[in-house]
Amino acid sequence: MADPIFSFLLLLPLALLLLLYFIVRPRPTTVPIKNRHVFITGGSSGIGLALAHRAASEGAKVSILARSFDKLEEAKNYILLSTGIDVTVFAADVRDYEAVSKAVEVAGPIDVLVINQGVFVAQELEKQGLDEIKFMVDVNLMGSFNMIKAALPRMKDRKDHGPGSIALMSSQVGQVGIYGYAAYSASKFGLRGLAEALQQEVIVDDIHVSLIFPPATDTPGLTKETKKRPQLTNIITESSSAMKAEEVAKKALDGIKSASFIVPCNFEGLLLSIATVGLSPQRSFMMAFVEVVAAGIIRIVALGFQWNWYTSIHKWHGQNKSS
Ligand SMILES: NC(=O)c1ccc[n+]([C@@H]2O[C@H](COP(=O)([O-])OP(=O)(O)OC[C@H]3O[C@@H](n4cnc5c(N)ncnc54)[C@H](OP(=O)(O)O)[C@@H]3O)[C@@H](O)[C@H]2O)c1
């Protein structure tokens, strides 16, 4: 007869898997992009441009929106030359609701809306001007509300009624606050509340929300930002190297197509997503299993990170006071 303890240890994970299989919500689905309209804000540079390129290569009808018409034209030509596919461009500022509404109306029904525009300036909150703080919140958070408010009614009325998607480009700094990013973090943490609530509101319309969490990514935006970072921000973030925009775009698009709510972009991001998962939706019972089983150990790792960051901060202040 089998050892009862052995049987219990074997049955426990199976029972947990079975339970998770029945309770995970929303249920798994996929969002096709071939021959469908993918509208990407901030699509003229960095991650947005890589996403537009990738979506076009996979057969989507792509529209991109950003402020500078010249940069949009450059992006359009680059995608045309490398894929032979023509994307439609819209010059508008996401802070201007009327302008984005007009763009969305001209663009026609959207199947996949990727809200990717973003601005980031690292600075200690005490030194950062309120105008710069407001700028980040307005572009990153309010701009996202403007885009969703403009596009959602037409997305709900879309003709082909296949699954739709609203994807929001957050950041790992939207999962954990880091020295120097108080304003940027706040704007990206805000996207999480927006995404969690919105998913509940649009699930009956077969619209699926994805929240993408890239790490540092080699883009024109990052190059500009790293030029004037606080020293402590560099010390705390020095262990992570930047991903390529194309790699992030691939992870992001795969996440959107599999309708994943949380989309990490690398292994470190996966651990961070498990550590910060909270009450967010999870479609995959296997991922839910990993989240449940790994929770305790990942919390220990997280506390280790905090120990490291606070030690660095105290050390840096100690050295700069004595010198
Ligand atoms: N790069 C990173 O390390 C990193 C890491 C994590 C998350 N992210 C996030 O990923 C997204 C893309 O970042 P990126 O590094 O690729 O940035 P990027 O190279 O600076 O590109 C930003 C894009 O957003 C557009 N944009 C900026 N402000 C806008 C506005 N008010 N209205 C409309 N479009 C606007 C820009 O075009 P115009 O200037 O012409 O408007 C450009 O197309 C952002 O949400 C960012 O927060 C980036």
UniProtKB/TrEMBL annotation:
This is 3-dehydrosphinganine reductase. The keyword Oxidoreductase applies. Gene3D superfamilies: NAD(P)-binding Rossmann-like Domain. It comes from Rosa chinensis (China rose). CDD domains: KDSR-like_SDR_c. Pathway: Lipid metabolism; sphingolipid metabolism; Sphingolipid metabolism. The lineage of its organism: Eukaryota, Viridiplantae, Streptophyta, Embryophyta, Tracheophyta. One of its GO terms (cellular component) is endoplasmic reticulum membrane. The chain crosses the membrane at residues 6-24, 285-305. Its EC number is 1.1.1.102. Its main location: endoplasmic reticulum. It comes from the Eukaryota. Belongs to the short-chain dehydrogenases/reductases (SDR) family. It holds the Pfam family adh_short. GO terms for molecular function: 3-dehydrosphinganine reductase activity; nucleotide binding. GO terms for biological process: 3-keto-sphinganine metabolic process; sphingolipid biosynthetic process. Keywords: Endoplasmic reticulum, Lipid metabolism, Membrane, NADP, Nucleotide-binding, Oxidoreductase, Sphingolipid metabolism, Transmembrane, Transmembrane helix. It is found in: Endoplasmic reticulum. It catalyses: sphinganine + NADP(+) = 3-oxosphinganine + NADPH + H(+).
